[in-house]
Amino acid sequence: VAGTSCGAVDVHGHAIPETVLDLIENSGHLFGGISVERTDGKFLVTLPDGQKLRPLPRGMTDGPDRRRWMESQSVADQLVAPWLDVQGNGFEHDNGVAWASALNDAMAEGLPTIGERTHLLSTVYPADPEAAINEMLRARDELGAVGVMLATHFPQGSAADAEFEPFWASAAQEQIPVVLHPPIVGPASAIPGDKDFRSLYGRTLETSLAATRMIVNGLFDRLPDLKIVLVHGGGSLPYQAGRLDQQVKDGKINAQTSVEVPSDYLKYFFYDTAMLDPSVVRFLAERVPDRVVLGTDYPFTAASAIVPDQLAGLDPAMRDQVSEGVARGIFDLSVAETVA
Ligand SMILES: [Zn+2]
User: What are the φ/ψ torsions at residue 279 (nearest 5 degrees)?
Assistant: First the structure.
C-alpha cells in the first residue's frame, strides 16, 4: 500500500501478556479463585467454577512472534483483546466487576511487550450494564483503550437484550466502538452433536443471531450512531439477509423497525474479514461499502490469515479502505500515529 498510508489496521487480535498471567498467579484468589498452572511451557487456566480452559496458544503470550507476523503482513496497528475465555463474564457479580478492571490494567501494562502499536480493546462485566459503562469509560480515559470487546452472549443474558441497552446508549453517546465477539460457551455450544463445529458454526451462528435481534429490535432506530464491529464477517447475517427480509415480510419475525426492509440495517454494522476467503471479502465489501475492516483473529488464524491474500479480491481503492481507511475512521489510533 503506497502513498500516505499509515499501514494496515487489524481490528481483531487476542493476547494474554505475561502481566495477565502474573495477575492470575498472584491475585487470582481475590476474584473467586482464578488460577494458572505453568507446565512444560504451557499455561493452563482454571476459572473460579473449576472449569479448566484449553491450554493457551503460544501466540497468545509471545511478543516477538507477533511482531514478526505483523511486520511480515504489513499490519501496522493491531487492536488486541484478551482471550474471551478469561474475560470473567461468568464470575459472581463483585468478582466479575473487579476482575474486568484488574484485567484491563494488566492488559494495558503488558501490551507494549506484545507489540509497540497494539491497542487495547477493554473488557467489561456485561451482567451489570452500569458497571460495564463505568469500566468502558475508565479504560478509555485512564488506559487509552480504543474500544471494547464484548461477548455476544454471557451466562446472565445477551448483548441484544433490552436490559443491556443502557450500555449501547452510552457507547453511542461517547462514540466508543464495540467489537462484538461470540464466546465458545452458551448458544454456540448448544447445538446437539456440534462439538467439533462450535468454533466454525456455533460461534458464527451466535453472531448472526445477536446481530439480527439488534436489527429487528430497532436498536439502530434509537441509536443510529452506534459503532459495532461484527467479527468473522458477521457470521451468516450478510449472506442470509434476503431470507431475513422475506421472513419479516411474511410476518414470521416481528420487526420493530422504522424501515420495512430489515436488510437495510446491514450497513449500520461494521464487519471484519476473518472469514478468510478473498471472494467472500469482496462480496462483503460490495454489499456494505465502507463498512468492512481487516480482522485476522490472531493468533488463532495466524498461519492462514495472510493479509494480502485476504484482500486479494479487492480493487486498490477498496483495498485501502478495508485494510485501514475504515478502521482509522472509527478507532482513534492517533497516539500510535504520533509515536510512529
Ligand atoms: Zn477472536
Answer: -70, -30
Q: How far is the CA of 230 from the centre of ligand 1 (A)?
A: 10
| pTM > 0.85 | yes
Say how many Å lie between the CA of residue 252 and the centre of ligand 1.
32
Residue 12 CA to ligand 1 center (angstroms) comes to: 6
Check whether 6 has a pLDDT greater than 90.
Answer: no
Gap from CA of 83 to ligand 1 centroid (Å): 8
Flag whether pLDDT at 340 surpasses 50.
no
How far is the centre of ligand 1, averaged over its atoms, from the C-alpha of 300 (Å)? 7
**14 CA distance to ligand 1 middle (Å):** 7
Residues 41, 110 contacting (CB under 8 angstroms): no
Cα of 302 vs centre of ligand 1, distance in Å, is 12
Q: Report, as an integer, the average pLDDT of 40-63.
A: 89
**pLDDT tens column, 156-205:** 999 999 999 999 999 999 999 999 999 988 877 888 877 888 888 889 99
CA atoms in the 13 A half-sphere facing the CB of 16: 23
pLDDT bucket at 301, cuts 50 / 70 / 90: confident
- Give the distance (Å) from ligand 1 centre to CA of residue 259: 32
Average pLDDT over the chain, rounded to an integer = 93
DSSP 228-270: EEESGGGTTTTTTHHHHHHHHHTTSS----SSS-GGGGGGGEE
| Local structure of 119: helix, strand or coil | strand
